[in-house]
Specification:
Length: 190
């Protein structure tokens, strides 16, 4: 059920992006089915369409108003990581979107620190880490009444990120594992 809801939500969102670029409606649906489907067949998007799709993903806001333990947000994260990988296997465009976003920070020292952190996140970890981290930070939101459900959602995101981090033996630096991004305003009990 979660996968169906995720796929249909993304198709509706991304279909609008493609049709705004004058892609035929039926062809846009077919290409999105290829993009979202778990197959080796590669969808045919122009460079402009690929950039527009990545931008649409980067700027989307996805809210689960009754997230429970986070099944839908985690399902959405997994699918978005898969889609971003299909659109940008080398992570070059996705990384550039994050840097472009950081360049809007008005304080020069904060901007420089943010760009340096982005560079480090992509260079020092697995490919999916940069995809997941910035999707979690920018796109995914959840609300539920039980506080424990929200804590479980946050834990699931943390575990998902740890899977793609490269670790080391330095105990003083927490074995290279970064703390979970601050999700206090992204996942709330309310």
């Amino acid at each position: 059920i979660v996968e169906y809801m995720v796929d249909e939500s993304l198709k509706a969102h991304l279909w609008g992006t493609l049709t705004e670029l004058d892609r035929e409606e039926e062809e846009a649906r077919e290409q999105l089915d290829l993009l979202l489907g778990y197959s080796d067949e590669v969808p045919s998007f122009s460079e402009g369409e690929t950039d527009a799709l990545l931008e649409a993903i980067h700027t989307c806001k996805i809210l689960d108003p009754a997230c429970g333990s986070g099944a839908f947000p985690i399902g959405m994260l997994q699918k978005l990581v898969y889609v971003v990988h299909k659109l940008d296997p080398e992570n070059a465009r996705w990384k550039q979107l994050q840097i472009k976003s950081a360049e809007n920070i008005p304080d020069p020292s904060a901007k420089a620190a943010a760009i340096k952190a982005i560079e480090r996140d992509f260079e020092e970890n697995g490919d999916d880490y940069g995809r997941k981290l910035y999707l979690i930070e920018n796109c995914l939101y959840g609300v539920d009444i039980p506080p424990i459900a929200i804590q479980i959602s946050k834990l699931r995101f943390f575990i998902s990120l740890i899977c793609d981090q490269k670790t080391n033996r330095d105990k003083a630096k927490n074995h290279g594992i970064r703390p979970l991004p601050n999700l206090e305003t992204k996942f709330v009990a309310a």
